[in-house]
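Local shape tokens:
==================
===
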Amino acid sequence: MSEPRYRRTVLMGDPAHFSVQGGANPHTRDRWGRRRSVDRAKAIVQWHRLRDTLRDLGVHVLVVPPDPAQPGLVYPANAGFQTDLDAELPLDEKTFYLANLLPTRAGEKAHYRRVLEPAGFRLGEIDEQYRMEGEADFFPAGTHHLLTFGGIEKQRFVPALAWPPWKRVYGFRTDIGAAPFLESLVAPRPVLQIRLSLEAHYHGDTALCAFGPNREYLLAYRESIESGAWSQLETLFGDHLIPLSVADAERYAANSFTLSQHGASHLILPGGVSDALLGQIRERNVSPITVDVSEFLKKGGGSVKCMIGDLGPVAVEQDLGMHANPGG
């Protein structure tokens, strides 16, 4: 019997009801604290362009149907994370652990379950006492896994000596208390804990992006990472670490999707990143591709990677058996 062929598979969330409902990160509100309004027609065009780019690269896109009560479904990088992500293994030898999302997005979990279970994915749970937002904060990078975290805050307005005389506190998304459990899942692979410091980069995948055939290169935004953790990254990655400029970081250059299959490596980045950064990626024999998803960043605080939940390689026999989805 011949060996099965594998095809990269991802989750994307149908954008038909994309809007800012909770306003749970600094990108979702203006300086007065008012939730931003989404140009949904523009967002839908951008979403389809990203989906088509993935398809053109041979990726299977599994689409989560929309729900007007859950506009955050367009950001399924928070759905959870897959064990042995890059390994070509049968689905019953991996587990997708569903995330424990912040309260305004907690209802998404049932939607991800309804899509993934019929498609053959084995699902696991994380202790509900821990906030843990999936591969947005727990992902492979080189020989390690990175676990990013920060203080979990009750999101609220507080007084400020500024104009307007208030500000909104957002906090971060993943509780470091989940670390022992997460570390046990990837052992003996070491886990490097990275504390985040900027609320505008509230998930690790907005500040860090491992890419290349073995995820051996790392885009990293120094200002968003506490100094001790930055020193550890420098030691671990050496000249494979690529510090991001402020301009590229603010365009969420780190929120990019890496794809290596069939002997080729690509990195899909948000439109508008600098030519200098694209050149640094090409120098590492990785082909950069840019896609404009600005409506999702400017209004919802998520870019390319936030819009993609990586499910890893799936055997074609299983992949072709997946249920059809609207827009998929």
User: Anything to note?
Assistant: The two ends are 31 Å apart (CA to CA). Residues 40-56 form the longest helix (17 residues). The chain has one domain: 6-319. Residues 6-319 form a domain with the L-arginine/glycine Amidinotransferase; Chain A fold (CATH 3.75.10.20).
